[in-house]
Design brief:
The protein is 67% helix and 5% strand. By secondary structure, the protein is mainly alpha-helical. The chain has a two-stranded antiparallel sheet with strand order 1-2.
Amino acid sequence: MENSLLWEVSIAEFILVTLFLGGGTAWMTGRAVAQTWRTPLQLAWYMVILGLAVRFIHFALFSGTLLSGYYFVVDFLVILVFAFLGMRFTRAGQIARQYSFAFTRSGPFGWRPKSN
């Protein structure tokens, strides 16, 4: 067992569970929240629930600590970033598409007013 500031069991386990599984699910959740025009606060609440699920996977499959507050916060912050990026990516497309008369997409995560 090699504890670190980011991972509890191993770097491979952290990448698989937190980044790949948790981050992918968080990205898709962020997209779903954006598509239904929900608020970032609702997305954060969903990430608390997903963070608990990620912590359980660490515990059940890799003998991590189930009730570790520190590693829960680490997992939560990582998936929260993925979730907000997914939400912002989708929201930028929505704004540019739905309000195309007023806005244009500005990069993958932003939009700007159209110049006349």
